[in-house]
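Supplementary Text 2. Reproducibility record for the structural model of the 457-residue chain.

All settings were left at their defaults, and a single model was retained for analysis rather than an ensemble. We include the record here because the model underlies the residue-level annotations in Supplementary Table 4.
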Amino acid sequence: MKFVSLLVPPRIVFPLLVTGVLAGCTVAPSSGEKQARDQVSQIGETLRPSAQKPVLPDLRTDSPVGEFVRFAVLNHPQVEAAYHDWRASVSAIAPTRALPDPQITFEADISDMLMTFMPGLMFDFMSRGKRSAMAAEMTATSIVAYRTYVAAVLRVASDARKAWIELAFIDESIRLRESSVGALEQSLEIANTDYTTGRGMGTLANQVRVTNDIAKVRTELATLADRRTAVRARFKSTLGLSPTDRDPAWPQVTLAPTALPSEDELWRRASAANPELGRMRAMVDMSIASIDVARKARTPDFTIGGMADLKADPLMLRPTATVTLPIWKEKIAANIAAAEARRDASVARVTAEQLNIAAELAQMLYMVREADRMIAYIDNTALPNFERAIETIGAGYQSGMTSPGMIPETQLMALTMRIERAGALRERENAVTELMLLTADITPAGAPMLAATTFHP
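Retained model, structure tokens:
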């Protein structure tokens, strides 16, 4: 059999040799790579179908906050940029497991005339294990990019919800202060009547005080109107709309407390789904994969090829081959040590982030409870007391024992308390938004995230 193979013409032997070597050196896609491709394709069909923007929700003034958040996630360029970064990292997996590009070579001997003319083809080869390790490292890198994408989605959703809360708070503040103006004008009318009829003493001072209070509230209303303009611009930006785009339907809602699960459940969700923690865990996997790549540096690479002298008769074939010699053990050991150090640093960052999450969770829960206590005090104690006071003053006025001017003044104090309640509710809902961000629980159902918060290679 050996003698038979030697009789095969070189022009047949070389192509057969190259074909056999290439067939034996291919690396099939790993399950992680296939899953990453499926994942990026699945989300792309929702986020940018046919490379176009998707159909956006039809926003109305009474649309729930989830619809505004979904609009922002689908429309915001920050989400699109993070998605394309992730898609690029997934596309970069295949080249890492592919063989280097072949090289066409040329050699000629020329004296007085062309003596030899030898074109050829060269192939560089890495071992299957080395290319598999590099593909695994790039797959882990794509998981980091995916987690970055998830974080971008959640941050956009958080910003949109906070802007929605701020807009609802501003509208409520304006409504309450407009009511304050009505109460103050009623108080001023009573003070003017008392002053004109000569009833009581110091009614001129009451006129001046109430007039100043009215001017102050009107100034606050003008400031709130300017603030609403700025908040609407911010809200429009969080929806991914530019200043030249048509204004969305501005939400007209009343803030209400959002129910929360138990502290233990929040911690469980944060530990399992926190976007930053997930990204750091993915970086641990990436650093572990980089260790395997560094260790594969001990494996030599080689080059094979051949040239054929087209002027020779019979045809002459010149095979060539090179092999790298990874003899610098110190360099290899240093690369491995550096990769291991990066792994240890990534593990430490995961632990540090868990500590940060625990502290942030405790802080946000404290803010929620503080706001809940203030709201409960206003609803259950302060406002009922003001209502009873107003009833008492009204009864006293009918019997001639109290001045009617005390009624609008008490109403004004009650309105001021309602303004404080609105502020406490805004702080509470902002803290709830941060808790949702910590637990990756802020996107509405069907948002293009996220069929994969549990995605692992």
